[in-house]
């Protein structure tokens, strides 16, 4: 008999009180997100390296910050997150560092730069604004995304879904996944860090015969909705977006407990040079308004203050993500090797 | 005459469209050369090159007629085309005709290699000639736009699009380039372009788009991941691949209109 940790169809959006069995873990008291009206005016000039974000929403945030601060000039260099991280490290090595800030969609890339000793320490009052499990000395997570199990309620019931990701190969469920996708590979990296290489290889091999591959995770969610499979492995926002465009979509979300299956990964920012303007700029990204905007428009999880999660996702206190150092998720090479060894890619 | 007018109008529209997006042009054929940023100064040279290509084609066909396929060395057609600067001028400015030129080159080459009757070879030659001269017309028009400051300087590096609407513009250009590369018989290159365009560009757009029109995203998902790669893998004709791409670009236009409308209604951050 499998016990569900948390399961919730999207028709019960936001009804957190319906799940009293969920235990709060680690998300203790934190300060409130600061409204932008209470932040200092930005003055001077900064260069931001911006890793590819969700559509143009990060750009909207940057435009709004620029508009609000007429005496502030922001130069932006855009590119794939991993390429910009490499560029930052190459520039530092050559002594020609140009970026003041790095805002990356993937915490793994942030980890590379932090590990190279290039990030500045952030003030304590800034990191205190974040949820306790997302406080780091040299970078600030901006918004999060959680791994989920989207399923088709016409094909299976919630009770058929295990609350452990490691138990999935032992079920008779048909599953959609996107192994070539970066978020999936971060998830496998987290599994490797938590469970070890042997167990992860065993899991991949066990899953191989019950899975159908898709190029991206929106494709995974759409396949679940069409009823091609019972459930899928995907970041949470694909389901929310599909439900937004197709409210009657046959989709519900399930979450595992304390394992890589409910990993929360984050976008993040770090300062590469000392200075008040760079630190204050990060405060704008953690402001109540920016956090709310990213949550309502991009369906990302706000990580500063105690702001509500997007409709359809339980509050962070009700989820049980694993304890994983997010900055270690950049270590993809062993993951790729392991996936190759298991015959997945 | 009416048809020619419609074609010209289409070409003007495409050039203007390309002008707005050319910052993101992606070229797969090595160095472009600075001459593409000085089209007017090079028009005479381009015209000479088109004449030279015509004469070379004529020579190959004459050799075929006189001494057969082996003596004709039809493969030299591609070498001649790769050698001229006009190649980059049309690729950077009007990739749709660029694809037709490759289609024409292979039309002549294949008909010779297959030892087709000379009448058939000349039909293919006429198609190639038409594409070459149309291309010269397009480059002349692009030169005018460039002189008027309406064409962005061609970059050999790629800037990341700033938002979904810009990403769709790059996707549109890339899809036409897929046809061009397919017409060049670069099967792996065209397959990789489809894959990369999906993963690096469309995948970033579809999240925003699916909230506006889920079935449109579903259609394009299938086009990117099944229909187009399958047609390329099965080596369908250039016309069939072009037809799939044109249907996709129509859907991309629809997506662009939806995102533009949505941008006007977007909530303010502060």
Molecular structure report:
The complex is a heterodimer of chains A (345) and B (270). In chain A, 33% of the residues lie in helices and 17% in strands. Chain A has helices at residues 57-68, 81-94, 107-115, 124-127, 182-195, 197-208, 217-226, 236-245, 276-285, 288-298, 333-341; strands spanning 6-9, 44-51, 72-79, 101-104, 140-151, 175-177, 211-213, 231-232, 234-235, 252-255, 264-271, 301-302. In chain A, the strands form 2 sheets. In chain A, strands 1, 2, 3, 4, 5, 9, 10, 11 and 12 form a 9-stranded mixed sheet that branches. The interface between A and B is large, with 38 and 35 residues.
What's the short version?
The complex is a heterodimer of chains A (345) and B (270). Chain A has 345 residues and is of the alpha/beta class.
Secondary structure blueprint with pairings:
The complex is a heterodimer of chains A (345) and B (270).
Chain A: E1 6-9, E2 44-51, H1 57-68, E3 72-79, H2 81-94, E4 101-104, H3 107-115, H4 124-127, E5 140-151, E6 175-177, H5 182-195, H6 197-208, E7 211-213, H7 217-226, E8 231-232, E9 234-235, H8 236-245, E10 252-255, E11 264-271, H9 276-285, H10 288-298, E12 301-302, H11 333-341
Chain B: H1 2-21, H2 39-67, H3 69-72, H4 76-83, H5 86-93, H6 95-113, H7 118-147, H8 164-183, H9 187-210, H10 214-233, H11 238-264
Helix pairs in contact in B: 1-7, 2-7, 5-6, 5-7, 6-7, 6-8, 8-9, 8-11, 9-10, 10-11
